[in-house]
Amino acid sequence: MFKTFSRQKQYDTMFDIGNYLFLTIIMIVTLYPFLNVLAISLNQSLDTVRGGIYIWPRQFTFENYLEIFKYDDLITGFVNSASRTVIGTILGVLSSAMVAFTLSRADFQGRKAISTIIVLTMYFSGGLIPGYMLIRDLGMINTFWVYLIPGMVNAFNIIIVRSFMDGLPYSLQESAKIDGANDFTIFWRIILPLCKPVLATVALFVAVGHWNSWFDTYLYNSQNPALTTLQYELMKILQNTSMGSVNANDMRGMTQDQASQFVSPESIKMAITVVTVVPILAVYPFVQKYFVQGMTIGAVKS
């Protein structure tokens, strides 16, 4: 009996050690790319061309970030990106929740047909040219609304929210109706507070999509500098910097003044990556608890 217990304890200890080693390797593999990007973005550009930078900069500097923020339209782009992210997230979450609430109602006639139509939009679309013609005919070219309205209702988000609402007891709505509550009161005061986990999950998806979006700016608002976005401006900086890329051999022919003013494309690229990622990383801790709960939707069936 004692030998069996001792052997089982050894097996458990070996399993724990192996598990910790495996998770440590996974953590290193996950963190290394980001640490490498951060190190290159904080390293002096002239030194970056030599290569060999891993997780710590050899010559620490902020010149790469200062070079990015020299562009005049960057502040305008940041304001527009922040505005579209906040407004677009609120509109996207509310619209998806309202549609999902309607489709989750057992007394709603035709909900299966409408749900099927919504799902079909995930597999088929009109295409880029018809989409552009539609936006043009609606008069949203060179307007801020083109960032908000076209993607306000998302089929995937509707399915996620509806799946969560289907798990809520329908008796809650029936009890509220008996007490005299209308549909809007039921949605706003009962359903939405119970859907915080899934709404936080959807909000994170929508916010990341708005924050990282630049192609709609390129298509619809590229002729209006006042409506530019941060990602679009960073993309232009990256393109302009890449066109003037040089290697270590080219550096030998530079004078000292030229070398001191040189900013490598690799450093700019990494600095742009950090500028893009940091705002989302700053928001994620506040929604992490709800995000984890929302991602487990449908994992357990009662």
Chart the SSEs and their pairings.
Blueprint: H1 2-41, H2 45-48, H3 63-68, H4 73-104, H5 111-120, H6 128-137, H7 155-166, H8 171-178, H9 183-194, H10 196-212, H11 215-220, H12 230-243, H13 248-251, H14 256-261, H15 265-295
Helix pairs in contact: 1-15, 4-7, 4-10, 4-12, 8-9, 10-15, 12-15
Q: What distance lies between the first and last C-alpha atoms, to the nearest angstrom?
A: 39 Å
Helix content: over 70%
Q: What structural category arises from helix and sheet content?
A: mainly alpha
H and E string? HHHHHHHHHHHHHHH
Radius of gyration: 26 Å
Question: What is the CATH homology-level superfamily of the domain at 72-243?
Answer: MetI-like
Oligomer classification: single chain
Largest sheet features: none
Strand content: under 5%
- The geometry reads as flat
Q: According to CATH, what is the topology of the domain at 72-243?
A: MetI-like fold
CATH top level of the domain at 72-243 is Mainly Alpha
The average pLDDT score comes to 82
Low-confidence stretches: 298-302
